Amino acid sequence: MKFLSLTVLAILIGIGVFSLFNQSSNNVEEITTTELKEQMKTDQTAVYIDVREVDEFEDGHVEGMKNMPLSSFTETYSELPKDKEIVVMCRSGNRSMQAAEYLVQQGYKDVINVSGGMLAWDGPVK
């Protein structure tokens, strides 16, 4: 009986820890690249950032995106205004989600991740 109680307790703790670490993405809204394209036509107040590395960005990026590589993001994120919407993009949506979650942890309220990233982008690149 004691073994069963410890097993149940361990499972509950594991679920709690998993939930704690899995929570942050719930605070980040996601949009598609189609929605991004439409938003960039009408919303000039949002800040659009691409967190790919410099060489990736230079190979082709969405016009209007500012390059802030994820590798140095913890040193540069404070340049971003907390009172504006921040839209984050990368190659596939994974690195941008990491950056978006980091921004939320730092107190940014209006952060959006572009799901699919450049792999899903079908618009022009600069």
UniProtKB/TrEMBL annotation:
Species in which this protein is naturally found: Alkalihalophilus pseudofirmus
One Pfam family it belongs to: Rhodanese
Lineage: superkingdom: Bacteria
Identification of the protein by name: Rhodanese-like domain-containing protein
SUPFAM superfamilies linked: Rhodanese/Cell cycle control phosphatase
PANTHER family the UniProt entry points to: FAD-DEPENDENT OXIDOREDUCTASE, SULFURTRANSFERASE YTWF-RELATED
Rhodanese domain boundaries: 42-126
